[in-house]
Amino acid sequence: MSAATDPDTGTGTVSPAAPAVEEVAGSGNGLRAPLRRRRFRLLYAGQCLSRTGDLVFQVSLAGYAITSGSPALLAYTLFGQATGTVLMLLVGGALADRFGARKVMLWADLARVLATAGVAAQVAAGGRSVWAIAACGLLLGMGDGAFEPAFTLAFTELLPKAELLAANSLQAIALRTAGIAGAALGGVLLATVGATVSLGLGTAGFALALALVLLAGAWPVAHRAASGDGLFKEATGGIRYVFAHPWLWVSIASFGVSVALVVAPAKALLPLASADVLGGGASTYSLLVGSQAAGALVGGLLVGRLRRIPPGLLIFGGMAVVCGGFVVLGLSGSVLASVAVATVVGAVLSAATVAWAATLQSRVPGELIGRVSSVDWLISLGVSPLALVAVPQLLAYGSPATVLVTAAAIALVVSAATPLVPAVRRLAWPAARAA
């Protein structure tokens, strides 16, 4: 345990062995426990705003590209963003581990403010400079790639291990709520005030998040001795740590299979499969997506009550249920049954990903969390484009429903087998800290 610190000023001595967290009387494992900590409240509020702004930005940009007949603007922004994210994930975790989560989050949010403001300016000018648009997208992606590992690390710097599951549950709830609210708000703003203002308000979300991190002030972190290695060599330390621990590389590989075979391709296959099997159009697919989002909110709320289930079984048993759900969605001819299954898939997927984040944060040493998180994000994001590119090729050999069901069945077997690996089966939750 670190020495006691003042919750608001962060003054006090810090143990070199562990991050300092704000001491809160009576903290426990409920969802409210992390919210009793001022710095976490500010960070959490900032992310609710930035996630909402991000969705407003995405919807506004897509809507503008469609209505203005400028698909290149959207394509180049997304290409630059994806490229920047992957490139920065290679070193983003090392930056967070070296400089601390707060500094990296501040620079990442500043990059995203400048990038989204640049896109808004291009739209206001008619969006004719392809290279400027691509550069803004690249900067936006670099901000994303630096932010995610730092944000994962920030939880461990601000919270005791027993509160990590609750904090990640809150984060999942925020992501889903912001996604729904941001998408709706973006559509309304685009229709009422136009793309330039709507994009500008999306930028404001990142700016407010930046302001709240500044308001939180610097928080004390465990002392990290300089390795003397270059940044790239430090970044590879995360890869070495992952392969040295079977529970980590097996888990990340299993998730990679699920993302590659089910989660990513379903974005392209599920709309086609639902049209073939259910006979519906865009409205039917929208209903399934909305049901999955609603289920994800429920899963985020309930996962904290599932601590009696060992993490390995909760995470990968849950992923097996998710994959099985997609098998059913590819076969079901009933809209009502498909909506029910989509809701369950959303809830279980949310619970599994929250449990995984908490497990990663509680078991990986603090000085390596950023880099290990980068590896995790890189595998998940890296396989997604490859999976989506493979979809058109696979459709030459079968219907969308057949491809979806086959891929989901394979992923189901892999997920169900993962808890049989001893290192995964032995995973346990951290003990709750006494009040």
Bin the strand percentage: under 5%
Q: What is the CATH architecture assignment of the largest domain?
A: Up-down Bundle
Query: Total domains, how many?
Result: 2
Number of helices: 16
Q: Which ranges are low-confidence, i.e. pLDDT below 50, for 5 or more consecutive residues? A: 1-21, 23-28
Largest sheet: none
The CATH topology of the largest domain turns out to be Growth Hormone, Chain: A
Rg calc: 22 Å
Total beta-strand segments: 0
The succession of helices and strands, N to C, reads: HHHHHHHHHHHHHHHH
**The named CATH superfamily of the largest domain:** MFS general substrate transporter like domains
Structural class: mainly alpha
Q: How much helicity do the residues have?
A: over 70%
Q: Give the termini distance in whole angstroms.
A: 14 Å
Please state the average pLDDT score.
80
**Which CATH C-level class of the largest domain is it?**
Mainly Alpha
> What would the principal axes of the Cα set say about the shape?
globular
